[in-house]
Amino acid sequence: MKKIRFCIPALLLAGKIFSQGLSATEKQILLEVNKAMPAAVKLLETSVNINSGTLNIEGVRKTGALFAKEFEKAGLQTTWINLPDSLKRAGHLVAYRKGKQGKKLFLIGHLDTVFEPDMPFTPFTMLNDSTATGQGANDMKGGDVVIITALQVLEKLNLLQQTDITVYLTGDEEKSGRPTSVSRADFIERAKQADIALGFEGASGLQTIATGRRGSSDWLLEVTAKTGHSAGVFGQGVGYGAIYEAARIVDRFRQSLSGEQYLTFNPGLIAGGSELDYDAAKASATALGKTNIISPKVVVTGDLRFLTEVQKENARKRMRAIADSSLNGTSAKITFHDGIPAMEPTNGNEQLRQVVDRISNDMGIGPTRAGDPGSRGAGDISYIAKYVDAIDGLGASGKGAHAAGETINLKQFPVLIQRAALLIYRLTR
User: Fold this and answer.
1) pLDDT in tens, 278-317
2) What is the pLDDT of residues 155-178, one digit of tens each?
3) CATH of segment(s) 12-213+343-427
4) What number does CATH give the domain 216-340?
């Protein structure tokens, strides 16, 4: 592996720290993080080289075992949360310590990646002295290492005594076991005992964090119609057929709702014809049709993303109304299925952002703003955001998550760990 040159923040120069906002203890935290970076990158490399695609149960558990040993070095106890075999998921890693000092923290990460064993393997590889690539390096094994290293540094300095911290690394964030009422039951119950939730999904550089994330749900549109010879299409006796009606509905969705901020709805599958077989479990359809036969059936599946529950419900109401206004000779039904709830921006979340902003300024890296909630998809933190104040995007930075060539920015890596350590320290005083 190439030698890595770690970034020393601007406030560190010639062994002196010039920021006036940091205490002597906090300055020591920054120095200790810099000392810990070789071990942090080595841990990152080891974890990335373990395939832990969501469906690779053995790989997810192996990654969990690796991280469990590291949390124990930070003075935390660990336990593995098993899920029912019917969910076909590995389970979750929980690390914790109990105390009465400061805020009770709930730190969130995940062990799995989108890269399954049958996909081309990309090992941890240095591209230059400040950038590495590898499966899940950024999303989100880098974020897991941010949590681990920050806690290990605080433990080394005896700063975790009497704190109450729970770290929850789920094993199926990328493709949650269904039903989520089972796969996220323990996650939600433990989060309810906390005061604050901190999510370590990928950072968007050093200047933004997430105070809100959109939620996601699915919809299924089923259209039926009279069938007959194509010569009769549009007539009073036969009508327009299912394909025209489905096209009308989907395009009306676009015309009526596409201009609303933070609201998106994407049809991912559409199929119709004289014969149709739709398999919901496999998200696949086969159809047979002739140009001289009016189609009697169409199915369309899609997702719906939203920032608030009110926005979601209003959108559903309008989509139902559009589907109900059927063309002659047709009938349509749309059904919705809840997925991941929204992490709505709140005053409490904004107050947490202000804490991070003060830390960032004290470190000399500039202000921290709230990122655009429309730029992030749904995540585990959304399940519990209605119970506790929460922020996300505190993990590693990089590019190309969920794709071959995903990278992590190792220049910003130590700075983000320093900021995380200071945040945990200040919240638990």
Assistant:
1) 999 888 999 999 999 999 999 999 999 999 999 999 999 9
2) 999 999 999 999 999 999 999 999
3) 3.40.630.10
4) 3.30.70.360
